[in-house]
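Okay, any thoughts on this one?
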Amino acid sequence: MQNFFSLLKREFQIFWQNEILRVLFIGGPILYAVLLGYVYSKGKATDLAIIVVDMDQSEMSAKAIEMFNDDEVLNIKRVLFDKNNLSKIAIDNDANCIVIIPKYFQKNVLTKRYPEIVTFVNTANILTANFCSNAIQVCLGTLKVGVQMETLRKQGIPEKLLASEYEPFKTTFIKKNNRSSNYLYYLWPGVLAAVLQQVILLALALSFASEFENGTFKVLVDESPSIIRMMSIKIIPYLMMSFGVWLLYWMFTFYFRIPFFENLWQLTFVAGIFVLSVSFIGILVSIIIPNQLKATEILMVIATPSFILSGFSWPLSQMPGWIQGIANVIPLTHFLTAFRILIIENGTLSQTSDSIWNMIIIGIVCAILAYIALYFKKKEVLKNS
């Protein structure tokens, strides 16, 4: 028994003396607990973007808009007076709902013609769609009761009969994009993109680090004196294999009967930029951290929470500013934004330009830093030889 406890003590000592194990086992849970705590710190979504199309421009429609403005969940990004280019405007403003108040709304309410307010709900993000549609329903329900009571009261109907009388207008909610609110369509692509990012990062973490550890970097320098050529040799195989993974994902959409058919070429172009951007992050870490295990661990720390930070499920706008800053230097954040616009919302490639440029900037910055780091590594190995 004494031997058992001495061995147990020895194991604790081995753990505590191993810096990597100590950081992973103690630092990892603390880091992610704090990070994810701040991600969901608001507890509920507020100031979600909506668009109101006020075709009536009456006192009653103005009252409805005022009620939307007063609701903490809703944030009116645009008030329009016609339905031209609604889909484009909705994507440009990242709108979760479009509320259409029809022409002659107030007149038809007062003459008991039972007009209809239609709300188009963008279910590309099921969570924000539910928050928005519930808030709009509450606002319109409150307006409906107020209008009903006031109108009937003016007609001299007794108070006890008011609740049994007519509704002044109808409210209809129409789902757009992911109409069935299917979680397979919603989460599956985002999680797979996160997996692709993680495997690329982990694979490229070993690219130069393995050369340094195995003492073969000198051979690589002798056979490929150009730094750009060395970086290309490390990246191109993973670009080719990533394209194979991309084709595999595409075939799975048929197997699972996922209706993603539009804008596939445009998305493939964006995916290529995404893979390049991720690859440059991977080789940068691999050059700076010349130890395979440590390089892999650092990239795991980056990759593991990236899906949650991307804003694909929980909106990025609901996170603290410093977390948004972290999310914006992760390529997955911008790729998933482009994916949602092109595939789920059926937008255009030009509407993803911000996401594309953000990934290009991340890639260029990491490529330049990797080039500089590799230049000094090459200089050092040539000097030593």
User: Anything to note?
Assistant: The chain has a mean pLDDT of 84.
